[in-house]
From TrEMBL:
The keyword Lyase does not apply. InterPro entries: Bacterial_PTS_Sugar_Transport (IPR050864), PTS_EIIC (IPR003352), PTS_EIIC_2 (IPR013014). This is PTS transporter subunit EIIC. It comes from Escherichia coli. The lineage of its organism: Bacteria, Pseudomonadati, Pseudomonadota, Gammaproteobacteria, Enterobacterales. Residues 1-159 form the PTS EIIC type-2 domain. PROSITE patterns: PTS_EIIC_TYPE_2.
Amino acid sequence: MSTQPTQLLNFDPSTMQWATSSPVPSTFIGALIISIVAGYLVKWMNQKIQLPDFLLAFKTTFLLPILSAIFVMLAMYYVITPFGGWINGGIRTVLTAAGEKGALMYAMGIAAATAIDLGGPINKAAGFVAFSFTTDHVLPVTARSIAIVIPPIGLGLAT
């Protein structure tokens, strides 16, 4: 990558955004799973790997990051990406096959998840799911966009 970095990431000036040359099919579900697994893995490795006191800096700054990065890379490539891609493909198939009623249920779910906690973690998860389906041209992001402004308007009218 150091000799040809543009082959991995491409900047498209017409849309002003970065695009990967091969997007990961597991999208948000894969990122959520691997982040939880990586956190517990590093915690477990930190407890189980015992080194002398003079090597503690080596352990925390070099050994644990290298081992965890290798594990995360292999887990993403061989386990989580195929599994998450299969789940996302199933969701995409169900939403596409359900037609307008499926799109309505999707819109209601995304809007409710977006508006329920006013910018908290549920809102962020709903945003990632909505944007993943939008970038795949499965469903629009309109429900999320409307649900973002409804709670502040309601709070403003109520006061």
